[in-house]
Structures are given as structure tokens and as C-alpha cells.
Amino acid sequence: MEQGYLTLETGEVFEGVLIGAKKDSLGEVVFNTSMTGYQEIITDPSYAGQIITFCYPIIGNYGINAMDDESISPALAGVVIGDLCETPSHYQSIQKFSDKLAQAGVTGIAGVDTRLLVKTVRSRGTVRGYLSHTKKEELPPVKNTFWVEKVSTKKTKYFKNKGPHVVLMDFGYKKSILTALLDEGCAVTVVPYSTPFEKIKAIDPDGVLFSNGPGDPMELKKWFPEIKKISQHYPSLGICLGHQLIALAYGAQTEKLAYGHRGGNHPVKELSTGKVKITSQNHGYVVVDSSIDKNVFEITYLNVNDKSIEGLKHKHYPIQTVQFHPEAHPGPNDTVHIITEFVTQIASLGETRYAIK
Ligand SMILES: NC(=O)CC[C@H](N)C(=O)O
């Protein structure tokens, strides 16, 4: 057992035992309130550069299975947990949580008073933290990393299927978004985040899905005109970062939340029905309500806890965006109909397109 420390930039130090790769690591300390789903969470590319604190007190109890990774290589900076379970019990378990971290080169710290850490992050706002064998007086400087570039595919990938053809713009997509599209019968072309409109046009899809992804959406400013053009030409669905990027491309603004929404229990109100849906979320930024041109966008979903914007619908183009994760994984699938409706819509619009041709 190797003693380790998480030092926050605000000075607080948390002690525990190092697990996984056991190397020094700097990241933004965030917390996730999900009760299950640690495998999907640590492999979600949107966490690139972040140290995730799990609020749920015991992690590793059902092991790691062969199906639930959301990406090939985890991009997160570290994990902080309460109790680590080294004796997983599940018929599909093939690995221990700590071995998964080691294999992925990710450092973790276990045995931490995570309730106190979460309370600290909630009062301080999101802070940087450093995982190390020793306490740190001062944190090393942050390297400015463009995380989307790091996690997005370098090559275009095509998945054959019988239904409508969707381009998945990869800002760091979760595998379950691709799986959800394939399950709906869609053929999918995954393209690098920087693919311009002209290239999308050459692919000639029936619709475009703008994926989730890490970091500040403003880092993608250079691509806003292309994103706008793509969404004006193809029925579009934006998920999480994809939602923020579409809003920004049409002139709205984003801001950083105090400590983000991360977990599988975030209530959002669907304004068309008045119903509250429980959603899976993982974001630190949000679209600023007052910056949205209400002649152009209708607000479709609002967060019940803090009234922040959770969904938008363009008034003239078939564009819909959601801040939460309708594909779930992990979390409730109350809103999976958003993906189904997108596919139904592009299938019918596709038919009209073909009829015109
Ligand atoms: N899951 C996501 O796509 C996250 C979006 C963005 N990086 C944020 O933190 O707000």
C-alpha cells in the first residue's frame, strides 16, 4: 500500500492510498453522483484532463466487464474514491477496477473522505488538484491542452447498416452514442471533429450528430462557422458539447458552472409536456439563457435544480440539441426517445430528399 495525497490548489490536502498507475497527475477535480456506472464514467472521453471524485462510497464491487467501455483508452487525469473493492462479484466481471486503472495508466487515490472533498469542491467551485506520493506546497502549472484534438478520431470510420446515414462528428464521442444510432438501424460515418462542411457534403448523409466531448467549448471557436453551415444543411442533433457548439455557432454564449452537473440523477423539465425526466449528465459549461436568440431557438428542456438550459430546438431548421445524455450509459434512459425521434425524422426527411432528386 502506497500512501498518497490529493492536494487542491486552494490548499486542502486529502490523504489516501494510491491505486492504478500511481504516478503524479494534475487535473480539474470534479465529482460524479452516479450510484453505478464507474466503468462507463472512467472511459467517457468528456472527462479528459479531469480527476473524478466518486460520491458513491464503494467502487469496484461489480468489477469491469468486456462491454461497457465508452472509449478505447481512458483520457481522464485520475480518480478519487472512498472504499475500493478488490473482490468484485459479477458474472460478467473480467477485471478489477484498480487493474483497469493501472492498465489505462490512470492514477487513483482510495480511502479518501469523499464527502468532505465534494463539500469542499461545492464551496470552492471546481478546483485543480494534484495526485502524488507527497503533499505539494504548490501545484505545477497547467499545460494548455486542446483535449478534443487528443480524443477525436484521426480517421473517418464507416459502419454499414440498412437505415438512414448519419455523420457522427467526433469531439470525443461515447461509444454508446454510436451504438444507439446503430441500434436504430442507421449507417454511421464517424468523422474527425475538424471535418469541414465541404467534406460532409461529399459524404452526403441524411443527418449529422454533434457528439459530446471534453474541455471548454470556446476552444472550438475556429470551427463555429463550419458547424453552423453543417447544421443548416443537414438535420442535426447535438449532445452535450455538441449542444454547446451549436448554440455558440448561432451566436449564444457559454459560461462555466460553479461545480458542474455530473451523475445519473439530474432532473430536467421537458417544456412541451411539463414532465420531468431523470437524465445522465456530465458537463462543466452551460449555455447562457439570456444569450440565446429566442426568435431563432426555442428552449425545450430546463434543469429542475438550477433552471439552466438543457435543450434547444431551432425554429426554422431541423436542429435539436440537448445538454444531457439521452444515450445514458450510465444512467436512466428516460430521454432515449430523442435519438429515436432524430432517426425517424431523418428517415422521413431523407425520403423527401430522394423524391426531389
Ligand atoms: N459531456 C460533454 O460533452 C461535456 C461538454 C463540456 N466539455 C463541458 O464540460 O461542459
Automatic annotation (TrEMBL):
Pathway the protein contributes to: Pyrimidine metabolism; UMP biosynthesis via de novo pathway; (S)-dihydroorotate from bicarbonate: step 1/3; Amino-acid biosynthesis; L-arginine biosynthesis; carbamoyl phosphate from bicarbonate: step 1/1
Catalytic activity, as annotated: hydrogencarbonate + L-glutamine + 2 ATP + H2O = carbamoyl phosphate + L-glutamate + 2 ADP + phosphate + 2 H(+); L-glutamine + H2O = L-glutamate + NH4(+)
Stretch forming the signal peptide: none
PROSITE patterns, per the entry: GATASE_TYPE_1 (PS51273)
Pfam families for the chain: CPSase_sm_chain, GATase
Residues annotated to bind L-glutamine: 46, 213, 215, 241, 244, 282, 284-285
Catalytic residues (UniProt): 240, 325, 327
Family annotation (SUPFAM superfamilies): Carbamoyl phosphate synthetase, small subunit N-terminal domain, Class I glutamine amidotransferase-like
Alphabetic keyword roster: Amino-acid biosynthesis, Arginine biosynthesis, ATP-binding, Glutamine amidotransferase, Ligase, Nucleotide-binding, Pyrimidine biosynthesis
The family this protein is said to belong to: Belongs to the CarA family.
UniProt protein name: Carbamoyl phosphate synthase small chain
Organism: Neobacillus sedimentimangrovi
